[in-house]
TrEMBL record:
The lineage of its organism: Bacteria, Pseudomonadati, Pseudomonadota, Alphaproteobacteria, Acetobacterales. GO terms for cellular component: cytosol. GO terms for biological process: carbohydrate metabolic process; glycoprotein catabolic process. SUPFAM superfamilies: Six-hairpin glycosidases. Keywords: Hydrolase, Signal. The keyword Signal applies. Residues 44-295 form the Glycosyl hydrolase family 92 N-terminal domain. This is Glycoside hydrolase family 92 protein. It comes from Gluconobacter aidae. Residues 24-55 are annotated as: Disordered.
Length: 769
């Protein structure tokens, strides 16, 4: 996702080479990462995106899992939290601790729940200053001691000489901490404001130690999703020798000791807004293992999740299970190429499969947008929906690769709509709760695209009802005026130009599904609304512009101007004037025909632009002229040349984008990965085609960047892309065949992909004459 209240920037960083470990003063010698073995998971580098504005995390998770167990690093203050939206920045020198929930590539800072820090020796209760690590419990670390592989993360905490290892299952985070000999071992649990938080964010928290040593609790915050509650349960492989529960707000501490049989004598609990726990284990001769489950519903459910999914203490077995889950998930595409290509490709696919995340307990309970407990019947409930981003490519890719998961996702969207106080589909939701961030009702094209791609297993009638409700609820984003006069007036609602354009596309997607279901009247209504983009087209300036209630275009007008709360959403007129994916021929016509259209796109890419013009809207990143690949509204633009009869220009621009906006470095993403959208764009483009208008059942063909990739589709068919003469000297498509037959036009019907077969390219040095 991208946020219109936060910043984007592409920072310079370099990836330190090598992953060999330095000596650690502990009982066990750290093991190096496994050598690449040809499996998809061995090609993944989770460091990509952890620097700059990528906002990805390097820690342990499983595909679409509830747990994202990852390190959190230094931060100056909340007002500069944008760079730490995933908790970790590659350039930071210290680690604050390891928390169990994170966003991948979002533009907002939240989560970071259940922060723990292993400590050897004296315990400090404050995190301290990153510039003076010894002032608190944080620790310095070096990238040379890190290992990041799918489902596993490890690092040495230099100030404590502790080797920390993390893995995950769906609802449980698994830790292994190897302490130095001779020093007391402690684990600190901090439920106070963390790296993502600000004073007053914690509304209430509870911390409890049960008779069997299980530590559990909950935390309720007034953050991005106000009133969000997250509960947890934690167990240790060694008995506690002592523990202290602190309420730092009231200066109250409860201390407990071990009784007979190494079990706590009493049941202890703290309630308040600034809770910490310190659990002591004496001088250990073996590593300490910790397992932590979470629940978005209740403390009891968190304990039950731990009981059902947290059996045993075999950390290596859990690590291998996580790796196996990733290899199975990533094997949906068999891509052949050199080591660098495979790393870029499979890391992108890895990022695509990090969200949405499981948000349902083992017993089927989930929290809905009404903040009530509900029960999923016959499906799994998923949340973490950055709809403004993922409808473009991430969800369309999963709909054909993993229709089984897509079915769960859509049933989750329907469940959210049916439990919403307003009856609306999710806009930007996580852990079941709504944030109302960004614009549009883009759950509509997610559902429509999946339905038209053949995804079933959900109630299409209920889905369509929810889609219509979201598209007709007047108070949302001034849909009242949009339905009445055909556009969102800027004097009543900010970002009116962008909202009008995005509503019109969503209307078209709704109409497509309605027509496929035989709902002709519904289809006609929304097909008519989908033409509302014309209401914000200004033939005089040849830009899309916001209009006032009187019908006049908003003045003053400067195409380059972009500001939060302006006429556009995270963009300007240059970036938004192409957003008519549902009717590109119509856009070409109003722009004056094919030649003028292609010249205008050339101008978009070729204009010299000072990036400082966007210093106050740093979401606009990855600039090539006015084109901003680091943000989503432009993602389809390079493919528009196809519609104007100039596919070689699409091929030129795609080469330019791929060479400048993606790299094998921590800062290798030009902007937020946005829950997999940036990565999904890369994957589609690498395979040679892209869904310019999801729900159209059509792909625009670009050019391939891999010589062979086979998609093992969810319907049991295989679709393979192959390319001859693929190298830097041959960047243009000379010939295309589909299943051996010449393909003349640069478009591919979705049914041709779903039926299986082969799309073959022959590349050449020059554009076709």
């Amino acid at each position: 996702m991208s946020l219109s209240t936060l910043a984007r920037s592409l920072l310079a960083a370099t990836l330190l080479s090598g992953t060999a470990f330095l000596p650690v003063h502990a009982q066990t010698t750290p093991q190096p990462p496994p050598e690449p073995d040809g499996s998809p998971a061995s090609a993944v580098d989770p460091r990509i995106g952890t620097g700059g504005a990528g906002h990805t995390y390097p820690g342990a998770t499983v595909p679409f899992g509830m747990i994202q167990l990852s390190p959190d690093t230094a931060m100056t203050d909340f007002h500069h939290a944008y760079a730490w939206a995933a908790g970790y920045q590659y350039d930071d020198p210290t680690i604050l601790g390891f928390s169990h929930t994170h966003f991948s590539g979002a533009g907002h800072s939240d989560l970071g729940d259940v922060l723990v820090m292993p400590i050897a020796g004296d315990v400090r209760l404050e995190p301290g200053d990153a510039a003076v690590p010894e002032s608190g419990y944080r620790s310095r670390f070096r990238h040379a001691t890190e290992v990041e592989t799918p489902g596993y993360y490890a690092v040495t905490l230099d100030d404590y000489k502790i080797r920390a290892e993390l893995s995950a299952s769906r609802r449980v985070g698994w830790h292994r901490y190897t302490f130095p000999r001779g020093k007391p071992a402690h684990l600190l649990l901090d439920l106070r404001p963390s790296i993502y938080d600000y004073p007053g964010k914690i509304l209430w928290a509870r911390l409890h130690v049960a008779a069997d040593g299980t530590v559990s609790g909950c935390r309720t915050t007034r953050g991005w999703a106000p009133g969000r509650t997250l509960c947890f349960a934690m167990r240790f492989s060694k008995p506690m020798t002592e523990r202290t529960l602190y309420n730092r707000e009231t200066k109250v501490a409860y201390r407990g000791f071990s009784g007979p049989g190494n079990h706590p004598v009493d049941h202890e609990a703290q309630n308040g807004r600034e809770l910490e726990g310190v659990f002591d284990f004496g001088r250990l001769k073996e590593p300490l293992l910790v397992k932590t489950s979470i629940s978005p519903v209740s403390e009891e459910n968190a304990v039950a999740n731990l009981d059902s999914e947290g059996e045993g203490w075999d950390f290596n077995a859990q690590r291998n299970k996580a790796l196996g889950a990733w290899n199975k998930a990533l094997s949906v595409i068999d891509m052949q190429g050199n080591a660098e290509q495979r790393t870029q490709f499979y890391t992108a696919l890895y990022h695509v499969m990090l969200a949405p995340t499981l948000s349902m307990d083992a017993n089927g309970d989930f929290t809905g947008p009404d903040y009530q407990r509900h029960r999923a019947d016959g499906f799994e409930f998923y949340s973490t929906w950055s709809m403004w981003d993922v409808y473009r490519a991430q969800q369309p890719l999963l709909a054909i690769l993993r229709p089984d998961m897509s079915s769960h996702f859509i049933r989750s969207l329907i469940a959210s709509q049916q439990t919403s106080p307003f009856g609306l589909l999710p806009v930007w939701a996580y852990q079941g709760l709504e944030t109302w961030c960004m614009i549009g009702y883009h759950a509509v094209p997610v559902i429509a695209d999946a339905y038209l791609a053949g995804v079933r297993g959900f109630d299409a009638e209920a889905a369509l009802k929810g889609m219509i409700r979201s598209a007709t609820y007047g108070p949302y984003g001034d849909l009242t005026d949009y339905m009445k006069i055909g556009y969102v007036p800027i004097d009543k609602e900010s970002e009116g130009a962008s909202k009008t354009l995005e509503y019109a596309y969503d209307d078209w997607a709704l109409a497509r599904m309605a027509r496929a279901m035989g709902k002709t009247d519904v289809a006609r209504t929304f097909e008519k609304r989908s033409d509302n983009w014309r209401k914000v087209w200004d033939p005089e300036t040849r830009f899309m512009r916001a209009r006032t209630s009187s019908g006049a275009f908003h003045t003053p007008f400067t195409p380059a101007a972009a500001a939060y709360g302006s006429d556009y959403t995270e963009g300007n007129a240059w970036q938004y004037s192409w957003y008519v994916p549902q009717n590109i021929p119509g856009l070409i016509k109003v722009m004056g025909g094919r030649e003028k259209f292609t010249s205008r796109i050339d101008e978009l890419f070729d204009t010299k632009v000072d990036p400082a013009i966007f210093k106050n809207v740093e979401d606009i990143s990855g600039l090539i002229g006015w084109y901003a690949h680091g943000n989503e509204p432009d993602h389809h633009v390079a493919y528009l040349y196809d519609y104007a009869g100039a596919p070689w220009k699409t091929q030129q621009r795609l080469t330019q984008i791929m060479q400048t906006q993606y790299a094998l470095r921590p800062d290798g993403l030009a902007g937020n990965d946005d829950l997999g959208q940036m990565s999904a764009w890369y994957l589609f483009t690498a395979m040679g085609f892209y869904p310019v208008a999801p729900a159209s059942q059509e792909y625009a063909i670009g050019r391939p960047f891999v010589s062979r990739a086979t998609m093992h589709l969810g319907n049991g068919h295989d679709f393979t892309v192959t390319a001859d003469n693929l190298d830097d000297a041959h960047p243009y498509v000379g010939q295309m065949t589909l299943n051996g037959r010449p393909l003349i036009i640069p478009f591919l019907h979705q049914q041709d992909v779903l039926a299986g077969g082969e799309l073959h390219f022959v590349m050449q040095a020059q554009p076709p004459s």
